[in-house]
Amino acid sequence: MNPTPSSKEGWTILTPSPHSPSLPPCQRSLHAAAVVKDSLYVFGGYDGQNRVNDFYQYHFPSGIWREIVTVGGNVLVGGTHASFGNNNNQGGGNHADMAAVGGANGTNNAAGWNNNNASRQRLPSGNNITATGNVPTPRDRHAAVVHNSTFYIFGGFDGTSRVSDLYGFDVDRLVWREVRPAVVGNGPPMDDDDRGGGVPAAVVGNHNNNRRIVGFQNNNIVDAGGGGVDGGNNNVNMQGWHNHVNHRGRENGLEVDFHQELIQQQHQHQPPSPRHSHSAVVYKDGMYVFGGYDGSYRSDFHEFDFVHSTWRPVFASGRTPRARYRATACVHEDMMILFGGHDGTRHLSDVHTFDFLAQNWSLLMTDGVPPLPRDSHVSVVYKNSMYVFGGSTGSAMNDLHELTFPTPSEDHMTTDAFAAPDYSTIAGSTATFHDEGGEAISIAKWRQIPPVPGGGIAVHRFCHVGAVYHGSFYVFGGYDGSSRLNDFCKYDLALDDLFDTTVPPSTLLTDLQSFLYDEGCLSVSDITIMVENIPIRCHKIMLMRCPDVHSAISLRNKALGYVLSHFEAVSKTSAFEDMARCNVELVFEILKNR
Fold it and tell me: pTM higher than 0.85, yes or no?
């Protein structure tokens, strides 16, 4: 895409390159996106009529969009790709349906995925990237994260129900796969193929060197055999999840205690409830999911371990943020930063941090004027700041704010639930905080980034996506309150760093003075002006460098004016007599001008 700056304030609009082999995604909101290597990947969303599951890559170095088409996968294609920018189709729900990220309940009977909507099998072409695997169902309000070279989406809303499935797309192998939680056993985690169509399973014993699998389906335990037990047959035995039936068997002297395995399975943590509009980040080898909406507004916190493919609830100390959805979460060093959202009653503007090392929640004290309380915004971290753009305060916004974090030696977060102020009233606070000894406490600082003269402006929006790449903040799509968008714009955060750089005082004059008055550098001075018998060393280049202030002509005219206005006194001085002997023409000029 080619940058095309508009005429008002600080953003650059990226227009499709005429050489791009694919058109950009159609207009949409409620989609999800993340950066993997040198590309932005965008999945799903709502186009005003349907939830979609099309998938796009934007390659930053080349500025080219490509659609990723899964061979054999059903993809619901949204809207039209004929235009780029605003789409005036106003169909599709009200503000209550607009969330930034989300997830649903495992059913594949998605709106736009069944026969009641126009879904079709996409065919690869030379303009597309061809992928394989099981593409996720159409959805919106899901969350996207990246771990290593895999782009993951979790949860969302499929038009009928909320979901809690997890899919990963390997950008190197170009393969989609559904990631099912592994179940604790005495064998290694298995791939989808080993699980017989992706059914979670556990290895509970070895029989004649065969795996004996206990799987789970519809909350039932499925014993898939694997060796003779209690008579040696391989009949499938299903027991209810909560039935503590002690099944014991022996095979070649190996005793298998199924009751013990069932207890292990009961202690195995389940995925978060089906939800949408949650927040998710990756820290090291874990995906952390906070809040969202599952029929109620949530404040629960979960971790998915990518290495072992297991979920666990995160039980942390400190003051847990109140339940919310449509908030944003970012990672800064060893902290997750949670900002804003909606609690079902009002928009929020509080900032919470979760310390991954200490497993502790804190309310971050902030100074300056914070953004208006909002949801459905985007937040990114760049260097030592978090940037927040757009969102809904009840109206679509296009303001850009920066929250600068205190240095590690200065930071302070309130962790005492009784001492912490109510974060529903802290917005806009500029109070100075003190510790027990009365010393002022350094806190994070909010500021709104002012317009850049001569720059571009981004359209008001919410339910968009955003990401940082090489010092620029990229934003795609969203909803402006009347139309869904597919514009693509960026803000140069590195340029903003330049504007904030402290320029040291100029040393030009002191340096030049040192050259002129240094006895070892007298050759630098080629003019000496005597003022009341005091020599002023100069250089003609220095005298002429500014025509209006410092030029020799200006200085000459001022001196001539002084002589004319004080001629009686000046003409009697010895300096005037010396000048008259050396410059008769100047004497005649003075006399002529009297």
Answer: no
